[in-house]
Amino acid sequence: MLSDKKVAVFGERDDVTGLAVRKCVEAAGGEVVYEATSCFV
Amino acid sequence: MVVFGLNEPANLRIMATTFKEGDPSFAGALGGIALGLKSYHIFELKSEIPAETWAGEMAFEELQTEDELIEEICETMRQVRGE
């Protein structure tokens, strides 16, 4: 599903960060074209 | 496609709906603009992620998160995708 897909990543500071999601997506073969980590508290 | 890491179902529903159908509140730049993007939460994609990467990046967060919340998150994402 992720292989060769362009992916926008939205993480959360106190949950799963954008960087952690990026590492997972890239390890699965996806291309991260946008990454952000926000705080919704 | 869009992949989320935030664990708040209400926020996930609004954000995923916005990327699919446009901003439901018509308050933002995507009001009335349907991008048609599919959204997933990273918890839904565990089977896609190499085990060693999951163990290093996600295992602790998965352990910290209640099973009921994970199921609510996954159900919310499925509903928005229309599955």
Query: pLDDT under 50 segments of chain B (min length 5)?
Result: none
Radius of gyration of chain A: 10 Å
Distance, first to last CA of chain B = 16 Å
Q: What general form of chain A does the structure show? A: elongated
**Main interface by residue count:** A-B, 25 and 24 residues
List low-confidence stretches of chain A: none
Class by helix and strand content of chain A?
A: alpha+beta
Task: Give the amount of beta strand of chain B, in percent.
Answer: 5-15%
Fraction of residues in H or I helices of chain A: 10-25%
Tell me the domain tally of chain A. 1
The largest beta-sheet of chain A arranges its strands as 1-2
The biggest beta sheet of chain A is recorded as: 2 strands, parallel
What is the string of SSEs of chain A from the N terminus onward?
Answer: EHE
Report the principal-axis shape of chain B.
Answer: elongated
> How many structural domains does the protein architecture of chain B include?
1
- The gyration radius over C-alpha positions of chain B equals 14 Å
Fraction of residues in β-strands of chain A:
35-45%
- The tally of helices of chain B reads 4
Q: Characterize the main sheet of chain B.
A: 2 strands, parallel
Please provide the count of β strands of chain A: 2
The residue-averaged pLDDT of chain A reads: 95
Structure description:
The complex is a heterodimer of chains A (41) and B (83). Chain A has 41 residues and is of the alpha+beta class. Chain A has one domain. Chain A has one helix at residues 18-27, and strands spanning 6-12, 31-38. In chain A, helix 1 (18-27) links the parallel strand 1 and strand 2. The longest helix of chain A is centred in the middle third of the chain and has 10 residues, at 18-27. The radius of gyration of chain A is 10 Å and the shape is elongated. Chain B has one domain (2-81). Chain B has helices at 9-21, 51-57, 59-64, 67-81; strands at 2-4, 39-41. The longest helix of chain B is centred in the last third of the chain and has 15 residues, at 67-81. The model of chain B has no long low-confidence stretch (mean pLDDT 96). The interface between A and B is medium-sized, with 25 and 24 residues. Strand 1 (6-12) of chain A pairs parallel with strand 1 (2-4) of chain B.
